[in-house]
Amino acid sequence: MGALDEALRIELDALHAAGLYRRPRISASPQGPRMRIDGRDVRVFCSNDYLGLAQHPELREALCHAVERYGVGSGSAHLVNGHSELHAECEQRLAEFTGRERALLFSTGYMANLAVATALCTRQDAVFQDRLNHASLIDGARLSGARLQRYRHGDLEQLERLLERRRDARRRLIMVDGVFSMDGDRADLPGLARLAQRNQAWLMVDDAHGFGVLGETGAGSCEQDGLDPHQVPILMATLGKAVGVFGAFVAGSEALIETLIQRGRSYLFTTAAPPALSAAVMRSLDLISGEGWRREKLRSLITRFREGAAAKGIPLMDSPTAIQPLPVGDNRRALNLSERLFEQGFLVTAIRPPTVPEGTARLRVTLSAAHEAEDIDALLEALAPLLEEAT
Ligand SMILES: *Cc1c(COP(=O)(O)O)cnc(C)c1O
């Protein structure tokens, strides 16, 4: 072994010993409630494909048609010659769907969040974030050089004190998950909007887990809470979760979008996503807004899961969304439970630090409109005896 490998092995072995080692399982089927994974047929309870659209025939057809016409690769960044008419049309649709002046596509949500923080903030500014925000929001703020102030989960009183303390900052930007990705609870967006207004701060919502799922038409957390673009001037959402495709977008005013185009380094210096993906996204938006039954079905499955768990004495975290985590605590116990479930034909991932704080490992169950009541019941049946065992 060379010196490099020797040094790395020590770290990798330590991760193993702490129950923190990760490895990707290999799937051999499309996304769905049943998949073939690592050579086994399993019921899946960990996908973010909340509406079951990732393998929808109409999305496949839209994608294939667009590939026939536009080919596969985009060839370059948006500002060179990679910006297809499909991208432009999709941005227009996303702006209309979210009720904002404009929208801008990004290759991933991670990159969209880096762009927002770095295009809007510098060392002279302050960024305020909930402790449980997604890593990409934290990384964006760090990269911007702004002063990063994290407040306790959902603690708006602490946030207000921090906002006051940083009154000297040139700009104050609050960034928050609309739905917290590992806990499933929702941010108090009306409260945050009031706070932002009162303190002349800007509010950005990352709606990766609300877009498509929440709100009357699926426009997300802001629609659900009746908040307008003045209250939430910066909206980001991803296209690889409920939308079932890939990518992300930021929606807001003309000036915001122009600023991201001019100064967002993760927009400027990366290849545009394949244009055909935009065709699939637009078809997905038709299904999301036109077929509300998926959201209704998902809601009824969430209720069934929560009521079933309560009846069996299975502890759940307090979440109203498709993300329904079971608190476990210990890393190795979470991993062990996940392995045992897999052996019984259920894929539920163990979420451990650094994805969640130390000592709060959990099984992150996610539900989808593609599940049936029988899937939910089967999972609960398998969970109850496993959780009773002392491990
Ligand atoms: C998944 C996720 C992202 C990242 O989006 P990708 O398109 O997967 O890069 C950003 N924010 C939140 C809250 C997420 O859950």
Molecular structure report:
This protein is of the alpha/beta class. It has two domains: 26-53 and 292-390, Aspartate Aminotransferase, domain 1, CATH 3.90.1150.10; 57-290, Type I PLP-dependent aspartate aminotransferase-like (Major domain) (Aspartate Aminotransferase, domain 2). 45% of the residues lie in helices and 16% in strands. The chain is built from 15 helices and 13 strands. The protein has helices at residues 3-17, 57-70, 78-82, 85-98, 109-120, 135-144, 156-165, 189-198, 221-225, 254-263, 265-268, 275-290, 293-312, 331-343, 373-388; strands at residues 34-37, 40-44, 102-106, 126-130, 147-151, 172-177, 202-206, 234-238, 248-252, 323-329, 346-347, 349-351, 361-366. Strand 7, helix 9 (221-225) and strand 8 (234-238) form a beta-alpha-beta unit. The longest helix has 20 residues, at 293-312. The chain is globular and about 55 Å long. It starts with a helix and ends with a helix. The mean pLDDT is 97. The structure holds pyridoxal-5'-phosphate (PLP). Residues 108-110, 113, 134, 136, 177, 181, 206, 208-209, 238, 240, 248 line the site of pyridoxal-5'-phosphate (PLP). Residues 108-110, 113, 134, 136, 177, 181, 206, 208-209, 238, 240, 248 line the site of pyridoxal-5'-phosphate.
